[in-house]
Amino acid sequence: MDLVLLGAPGAGKGTQGALLARKLHVPKIATGDMLRDAVRQGTELGRRAKQVMDAGQLVSDEIVLGLVRERLASDAAEGAVFDGYPRNVAQAESLDGLLGEMGRRINAVVYLEVDDDAIVRRMTGRRTDPETGVVYHVEHNPPPAEVADRVVQREDDREATVRHRLEVYRENTAPLVEHYRRAGVPVHTVDGGGSIDAVQGEILGLLGR
Ligand code: AMP
Description:
14% strand; binds adenosine monophosphate
């Protein structure tokens, strides 16, 4: 099963994608996570991507395609949940091509809808424990006392950058809903404003799981 999660940054794709991937027994391909790993490891690719990411822009299609191609040939040879990829129509077309070569296609799209103000509140409150990678939220899920001193805010979760990322999303990524509809791929729209469990339950219901 190959599934694309669409939705603005902060709509919950990472959280829902991880749960779905476990349920569907396929890996999650999150290009944002892969790029952040490359930045942490200080690779050449990471150095090229960092400035672009910190500014809330999209890194080049070519870099991202290289990352995805490797995964499709390794752990994601049987299917994947795509989170944060594709990010524009060109990426969607190259993904369609890559999957086509393997006799695969996107089976479904889950589109998580959340309004902008809720997204800004979610993202600006987000904090990550750099040692474990666990993500907290200052209001909804505050970090426990023993990790509170070391949690960090993602550079691109600052408010001005979040607003810019929402614009980039609207211009580049939102049109993918139409792209997939036109291609005849089922697009399931889900209200992403509910609790993690409620949203997951709705997604699984729509996917018939
Ligand atoms: P995310 O974790 O998905 O919100 O991604 C964080 C940042 O990584 C984005 O703002 C982009 O700069 C970059 N990024 C992640 N995925 C992609 C992609 N598919 N295409 C281009 N840039 C991406």
